[in-house]
Amino acid sequence: MRPLGRRMLILGIETSCDETAAAVVKDGKEILSNIISSQVDIHSRYGGVVPELACRNHIENLPLVIKQALDEAKTNMPALDSLAVTVGPGLIGALLIGVNTAKGIAYSLKKPLIPINHLEGHLLSIFLEDKHPEFPFVALIISGGHTDLYLVKDFMEYDVLGRTRDDAVGESFDKVARMLDLGYPGGPIIERTAKDGTSNDINFPRPMLVRGNFDFSFSGLKTSVRNFLANNEKEINKANVAAEFQEAVLDILSFKAFQAVENSGCKNLVVAGGVAANNFLRENLSKTAEKKKMNIFFPGHHLCTDNAAMIACAGYYRYTRKAKEQNGFMDYLELDAYANLKV
Ligand code: KG4
Ligand code: ZN
Fold first, then answer.
1. 90 in ligand 1 pocket by Cβ < 6 Å?
2. Is the CB–ligand 1 distance for residue 277 below 6 Å?
3. pTM (2 decimals)?
4. Which domains does the chain have, with CATH numbers?
5. For ligand 1, is residue 115 a contact (CB within 6 Å)?
6. What is the pLDDT of residues 14-53, one digit of tens each?
């Protein structure tokens, strides 16, 4: 096993959904390359991710993306110290392509392979930034598949405070965009569309705003958008619908997240995952944090949406803390992918 304390180069691989991604990260911090091949153009004509197409494209693209990540980092396979790969949660076929590619490379190089939960990648992505909190902190992970609140006590020490009981917040952005015929992925389009609208004339519900409860529900909000569109067919102002939907999302996330911070006794909130790339949410959550004298942290936009740098970063912390008990992460031939992996 490589002695700890020297510089450590990790190749991260991420294929859990529709981004084929590879990155080289030094010491869990310094991003030497972060390559993302997006399949958005392929899936957008179907209004969402088609798992079979995602798999085929990962197979085609992953070797090229890995090569590009190594080239851009001015390194090569033998110079790597280890690999980290997303093993779940996600589309099972898509995950398997990343996992099996990583196993093949690790085996041929006789290097450690660190299995990473995609959500742990989002949770730790803030450590790729210079500005990150001390432990403990509350983390709000908002993505296409998840809406989770965690108390992060240390690296690898996470308590789940709450999660969505139905739709994820990113999923509801995507579904509302689809109802409005705006295209896919919905998040960035809703954000752009909402800029020309006002939330004053529509009133969507803010479900589950109950003190002491950190779970979320977004399906009722989605249904009320659907009902509003059905009842006002002739006079729909898409920008206003988008603006009020986004405002409702902000109110829900803000209520839950800041309440969780108050309850935790710490002052720090990290917001990460694809939806955290939304500037309207970033600006308004930041204003509330300032009013409440709390500290709020967002990864840069490119580190919010799926990427492999966050996987390599999480790999670094897992390796440096767990290598001894995991036999140096060398027993990976049995490693598998898990569609529903929990943190
Ligand atoms: O983290 P991510 O890239 O993939 C998952 O792990 O799911 O998140 C993707 C989600 C999609 O639902 C997408 O619509 C949403 O993040 N998203 C946004 C924005 N950019 C991406 N949602 C709101 N505003 C954005 N600017
Ligand atoms: Zn993600």
1. no
2. yes
3. 0.96
4. 9-123+304-334 (3.30.420.40), 133-298 (3.30.420.40)
5. no
6. 999 999 999 999 999 999 999 999 999 999 888 889 999 9
